[in-house]
Structure formats: C-alpha cells, structure tokens
Amino acid sequence: xxxxxxxxxxxxxxxxxxxxxxxxxxxxxxxxxxxxxxxxxxxxxxxxxxxxxxxxxxxxxxxxxxxxxxxxxxxxxxxxxxxxxxxxxxxxxxxxxxxxxxxxxxxxxxxxxxxxxxxxxxxxxxxxxxxxxxxxxxxxxx
Length: 142
What we know:
Mean pLDDT: 93
Order of helices and strands: EHEHEHE
Shape: globular
Radius of gyration: 18 Å
Distance between the termini: 32 Å
Number of helices: 3
Strand content: 15-25%
Low-confidence stretches: none
C-alpha cells in the first residue's frame, strides 16, 4: 500500500489518456515527503489503477449544463487513495494537495471543454475485514 483507485465516467476515454494520468499520479505520490523529508510512500508499494464506468448518472442528467451552453454530458472522476495508518495529518494533507494539483492540471483542458466533477478522497487505516475465497488455492495443497 498505498493504492490509488480512479473511477471515472467512461466517455472520458475518448478525451484523455488515463494511463498517462496513472503514471503522473504514481510519480506525484513518490514525491510526497513527511516532516523529516523522508519519502512517504514506498516505491514498490505504490499502485494506481483506473476503471471506466460504462453506466453512470451524474447530477441532474445534463439540464443545467445545457442551460449553461454545454452538452449536458457531465463527466466525473473519483480518486480514492488508501494508505496505512501512522502518517501525520500534515503529511496526509500534503499527499492530498499534491494529488489534487496533478488531477487539476491533467483535467484542465477537459474542464475547458465540458462540465466535469473531480473528487479526491483519502482513507487511512487497516482493513476491518479482509477475506479471500477461491477454489484455486486447493489445487496446490498436497
């Protein structure tokens, strides 16, 4: 860990390169330092994954966007960073601001052309439930 998962409305695939965003976010995560100047996120544990949502509903369905002169085809991006406990609040805020600035810069050209919402949320802490269910693992038990 840390893991950054990006969920986004699928129409954005035609407008941006999400692989580029993933790389930019991972690179930004690796620049975050704590109060002592130490790298916050381990390089080998940094993961960024992006998933398009082919089905979605955003806001009012586009009425206000059309009234404002847009197409009404709203886009949305949800970035969720999950990190383990132990980092100070200042470090958590620094990580959030760093990632938000990268997202804002990346999506600025899109925001100039369409209505888009961006949410970045950071979750901290250990899993309260971690279960695995598989019929593959028994194949390797002798």
